[in-house]
Amino acid sequence: MSFLDHIRACNAHDLSGFRPFELEGHRLGWVRHALAEQLPGVDPGFVVTADRVTLAPEVRDFEARSSVLEHAARFLVETGAVSALRGEFYPVAPAWGAEPLMRIDRAVVAQFGVAAYGLHVNGFVRQPDGGLSLWIGRRARDREVAPGKLDNMIAGGQPIGLTLAENLVKEAQEEAGIDAALASRAVPVGAVTYRMETEAGLKQDTLFLYDLELDADFVPQNTDGEVERFELWPLDRVAESVRATKDWKFNVNLVVIDFMIRHGRLTPEEPGYLEIVRGLRR
To answer: Which residue ranges does the record assign to the Nudix hydrolase domain (predicted)?
Structure first.
């Protein structure tokens, strides 16, 4: 394993197996050909040709478009492609910050290959010798995605209807028992992006990154059952674990690599350094 292996894994895809999902001149996502062919039978609001998936012109407003996607989501549950809907909705929009054209259940985002967003917080402690330690969460074994894998102290998808700041406060409380005052000290430090083909479809994700420096006596406490336990690891141990193992949730590798670059743990002497840096933002 290597740092580059993780980046390449998060960007492995073949678009020849998909056709674009478009609306109003915007490319919103990618749908596998087999699913695309089924969609007009699920809801006549879908219009499918050999080279794209779109919605019928009469399906014009936010709620009507969202209803068409809802029918497709329920179809995917009925056919067993998705175990259950989440009841948490993501915006479907031409770009970050643009007005959403419709909403989609989080469970079927990959099936439509739409852009999804989330936030990850690196909770770290500065040691007396100047070294850094990072709070690591062990994901609960019953998680549908990456059960038992290592994770950031705080991470979550970005639902429709919340600002990033509001979502940060919510996730900080749920995942680490951090109150709003402490969460507000988290510093936005950029984003990582990737495009990854999975069994479900295509993940086109942007993760907004935050650093939160914590006192030495602080211990995070999970409140939503999604984290089995937290451990404070020296950054050298984190680096070796990411480099040499598959113990981390797939996209968290990218977040931690970015943290190590920004804090000088991963330097230009690292083999493939420039490819690593470029690979974090596709």
So the answer is: 116-258
